[in-house]
Amino acid sequence: MTKHILRNSALDVLIRIGDNGAFSHLIIDQTIKKNQLSMKDQALFTEIVYGTLQRKLTLAYFTKRFVAKPNKLEDWVKWLLYMSFYQMQYLDKVPDHAIIHEAVSIAKKRGHLGIAKLVNGVLRNAQRNGFPNIEEIEDEAERISIATSHPLWLVKRWINTYGFEKTVEICEANVTTKPISIRINLLRITREEAIDQLLEEGYESTPSLFSEQGIIVQKGNILKSKLFAENLVTIQDQSSMLVAEMMNLTEDLIVLDACSAPGGKATHIAEKLRNSGQVIAYDLHEKKANLVTQKAKALGLTNVVAKGMDARKLSAEHPEDFFDRILIDAPCSGLGVIRGKPDIKYSKKESDIHTLAKIQLELLDNISPLLKKNGTLLYSTCTVDRAENEGVISTFLTSHPDFEIDPNFIDELPTLLKESPGLTDLGLQIFPDDFQTDGFFLTRLRKKR
Ligand SMILES: C[S@@+](CC[C@H](N)C(=O)[O-])C[C@H]1O[C@@H](n2cnc3c(N)ncnc32)[C@H](O)[C@@H]1O
């Protein structure tokens, strides 16, 4: 019975998230609570929902083979087939006959006998004859697209920019799961204390690669740890922790975080300032800026002020040559965080990239005058795309001869990253397959005069 509830709940969530909706932890958490799923069932439930969304294009390809008119399927039947195919193809722990039995029983309850028969027929056919062999797709871009469930335009774009081999690695990494990365609040706890506490609570954890504040948790629902209840830690990917690490932060500095919500990096910067100086944080709307204020408050940080405002208009708020450090963690296409947010790869269009690159350049153009001479500006995105990253920086530098890539940037990178395949003289592109982190770009500019 519990397995029936689990799969029925997974189907509910898939229908709610649907083809256009964003993957939402909130919906997942609400469903887990409502159905009182056990810890073990929670893991399988999350795996089914995540995996089905991550593999959607592959599962649609399978469906075409077994259903004559897949577009005519009712939405819930389509998702029921997708999630059943997902379990049959990618999860070893559940036998096919159990998956089919559950799917048919769900179809009977939700629909009628006719639909249950259809579901039974399709799944048994797949069980008997196996899934189509993706390796037989001749066109190599199309093959990667179907095998790893990435839209064709994106696969082609990455092949053009990074080559075939790297694209395969990026796409394959995007359909895996990565361990949870958390940041400890150094003002309240040491990393050793946090790791000991986690061990006591039964979590396996290790120090992370690029930040003395980072911990990687291999398994378990970390949100249930006391460390969260007591606001001693916050969730943050390792690559995104690199931002504050690379800003050369010392006490009493005045720092601008131009695009700051929900406040992951603003609070990290504030921790690095040890509650001194000031982090002046903006985000487009007041509501989002409030999230930064709340996060800072929860973490006991008193040196953060957050306001809602278009950061392209900040010259009306602050004089030129004012900030010691500036962070522009720009709005971007998010192609580096597909692993955790699979909806991004289905919803983004290639034309979005050009619109975003224009905004990114406007942010740099309008904000850079506010930096003090010899001050540094860190530009980052969570995307894997040359136009939004190296392209924007190169265009900016051409029209701003008073700026240069900080000559110390590469020297100050953690040793591991100095060997990174994405390091160029315009900055560091971290790919999601390089270190089991999000894909990310960062570079540091210095104002010469
Ligand atoms: C990558 S997210 C920032 C993440 C944040 N730095 C953190 O670490 O939690 C980019 C943010 O830029 C904001 N944004 C977009 N356009 C903006 C603009 N013109 N001015 C200020 N913020 C903007 C978005 O609302 C979004 O919250």
Set down the secondary structure blueprint.
Elements: H1 2-17, H2 25-34, H3 39-54, H4 56-66, H5 75-90, H6 96-110, H7 113-129, H8 140-148, H9 152-162, H10 164-174, E1 180-184, H11 191-200, E2 205-207, E3 214-217, H12 226-229, E4 233-235, H13 238-245, E5 254-257, H14 264-272, E6 278-283, H15 286-298, E7 304-308, E8 323-329, H16 343-347, H17 350-367, E9 371-381, H18 387-399, E10 403-405, H19 409-412, H20 415-418, E11 423-424, E12 427-430, E13 440-447
Parallel strand pairs: 5-6, 5-8, 6-7, 8-9
Antiparallel strand pairs: 1-3, 1-4, 2-3, 9-13, 10-13, 11-12, 12-13
Helix pairs in contact: 1-2, 1-3, 1-5, 1-6, 3-5, 4-5, 5-6, 5-7, 6-7, 8-9, 8-10, 9-10, 13-14, 17-18
The structure holds S-adenosylmethionine.
Characterization of the model:
The strands form two sheets. Strands 5, 6, 7, 8, 9, 10, 11, 12 and 13 form a nine-stranded mixed sheet that branches. Helix 14 (264-272) links the parallel strand 5 and strand 6. The model has no long low-confidence stretch (mean pLDDT 95). With 449 residues, the protein is of the alpha/beta class. It is globular. It has helices spanning 2-17, 25-34, 39-54, 56-66, 75-90, 96-110, 113-129, 140-148, 152-162, 164-174, 191-200, 226-229, 238-245, 264-272, 286-298, 343-347, 350-367, 387-399, 409-412, 415-418, and strands at residues 180-184, 205-207, 214-217, 233-235, 254-257, 278-283, 304-308, 323-329, 371-381, 403-405, 423-424, 427-430, 440-447. The protein has four domains: 2-132, Orthogonal Bundle (N-utilizing Substance Protein B Homolog, Chain A); 135-174; 180-235, Alpha-Beta Plaits (2-Layer Sandwich); 238-447, Rossmann fold. Helix content is 49%, strand content 14%. It is built from 20 helices and 13 strands. Bound molecules: S-adenosylmethionine. Keywords: Cytoplasm, Methyltransferase, RNA-binding, rRNA processing, S-adenosyl-L-methionine, Transferase. Specifically methylates the cytosine at position 967 (m5C967) of 16S rRNA. GO terms for molecular function: RNA binding; rRNA methyltransferase activity. Residues 170-448 form the SAM-dependent MTase RsmB/NOP-type domain.
